């Protein structure tokens, strides 16, 4: 009995893409669809932990699902991509059940000893908790130079032409004028609130309006005015850029 559906997990690093390449080979050989899952951790690893799990020289791509989909289609394999967030092993097992996969294929980073004891192993966790068969592809077993080349070409293709920034004196003067006007208005409101709450005007500041002293109301008005003026400035900037 052959396979009907496969599931492979990918991340940004080479170990997972070794497993992915093996998954593509099996899917093409058996003429079955392939589901590719990428799980983003709810609580990402610290930089030091990432260095242990996957050193920088093993980095492949920032967009593993796009690379995987492009590569699989290029080799005639029907592919479905799934993006999830949360516990990696749990989401892999859950997706395998949802997709009714006959085989889960995972890459092993190859960490051993204290590092593995500290970081744990996603592959090991899936093997121990999944009722479905799991194939582990050791790091370095598959040559993924073609996938790395594809990832680089896709990255270059996504880069947009940069528009050079031009200095426009008229625009600078207009921005300075509008910013200065709003800042002046805010200063006037601020000094009004400061004067009202000063000692010579303490009787005025103590006058109650709707249950609150006038001094408190002047402070509230200052805060609201600051928010409104800031919003006006931001809207003006956005409006200017879209014209």
TrEMBL record:
Pfam assignment, any one: Usp
Q: Where are the transmembrane segments?
A: 176-196, 216-234
The UspA domain, residue ranges: 3-138
Q: Which domain of life is it from?
A: Bacteria
Q: Which UniProt keywords apply?
A: Membrane, Transmembrane, Transmembrane helix
Family of this protein: Belongs to the universal stress protein A family.
Q: What is this protein called?
A: UspA domain-containing protein
* Species name: Desulfurobacterium indicum
